Amino acid sequence: MSIALRNLSPSNPPAAGSDGVVPRLRKLTAALLAVAVAAVGTLTAAAAQEPSAQSAPRTAVLDLEVAFLASSFGKSLKGTLDELQKSTDAQLDEKAKQAEALEAEAAGKSQAELVALQRRMEDLEIEARRIRETAQRSASRAEAEQRELFGKRLEEILTAIQEERSYDLILNKSAGAVIFAGQSIDITREIVERLGTE
User: Fold this and answer.
1) Is the pTM higher than 0.85?
2) CA dihedral of residues 67, 72, 73, 75 (deg, nearest 10)
3) Within 10 Å of residue 38's Cβ, how many Cβ atoms?
4) What is the pLDDT of residues 30-53, one digit of tens each?
């Protein structure tokens, strides 16, 4: 008894459903293809996310001192300090004139009178020192007040800019932490302009 062997080449596949193998192979192939597509999709998504994860942080620089001096707060402080300087200079000039007058009186005075003049000169020195110290305290207080107001307004502006542009980092040039920064990332002028709109 002879058994005829059938050629199982791709051009002559077994009849579908003849022994159930072909349908199972098709299902397996479809399942493998689905897994492969899912894997490729996952790898593509990961590759797409990778550059953004490794990209450089968005950075800006700002010269806080320039911004402060150009702001209404800095200008107000300058006006206050100029007036304070003028007042202090006038008071010190008056003390200097009084000292010159005392020196002129010294000629021909007795020893006791010279001692009294010397004491008056020392009193003038103490008064002049007190005037300078008072002026310095007033200047420091005025600067602290204006810088505090500036700081509060600046924080609002920087928060708005950060939200608009999603900056990761904003550096202060005037603090000496920045060696070089291109104009494209320097936001000092914009800060001054926003401060100037008040």
Assistant:
1) no
2) 90
3) 10
4) 444 444 444 444 444 444 454 445
